[in-house]
Specification:
By secondary structure, the chain is mainly alpha-helical. Helix content is 71%, strand content 0%.
Length: 267
Amino acid sequence: MVFQWYVRASIHVSLCLIALVGFTSAVFDSEVSAAYYLALFFGSIAGYNTIKYGLESGRYLGLLARERRFVMVLSALSLGMGCYFLIQLPPGVWLLFLLAGFITALYAVPLKPGGVNLRSYGFLKVMLVALVWTILSVWAPLWGLENLNSWDAGVESFQRVLWVFLLMLPFEIRDMKSDPPQMKSIPQRFGLRATRYIAWGIAVLFALATGMKDAPAVGEYEVKIIVALLMGLTIAFATEKQHRYYAAFWVEGIPLAALGLLLWFQH
């Protein structure tokens, strides 16, 4: 029960986002404030639960009333805590949070009658989520950093988009039958086999892009090669009838494993 709600209440996905911030910090040898980690952790719990159990509530009709109340209370408390820690951060970081929030709203809030939003367009949906995660896990943590190598930051941003893109594909595969056909998600458009080939191509590009950096961090090559292999394999084994926690726990846990590996290489 505890594990179930750890995943359902978006705590796991929020920790994965935090792990990517830690990954950025380790790669650039930069210190990220505790207030940023906490603002992002609580804010992402509130944001994900709002989308999952509010705007996309049709997917979670099986939840009992008391379970919904638990999620609502947790989300409200998380929103308050997120705002409390956010106001302790520089105004530039606020703007990046607002930008991420605006893109998330475009992703989730219906823009046309009939509930049509940008999430209804498969490829665009994936790219918007990848952009939001890149803003929050690369741009905002590096905001105001002195002596930042902007080229390396750009390469890291490019790799982060690819990484999040790959993280989403097992979910796209899982939902390819339940998503409406007009969404034309990547698996719906290209089929399962072609999606796996695309994933391997992106994974290879993700790993090779590290060579474009002027000053890669200690262990960065090794860890990103391992991440590329893990992402390729998890997508290769992803199916429409996958275990309920295959994508939501194991795949989303890859950033946590990557951070642990990088810290191990660096110490």
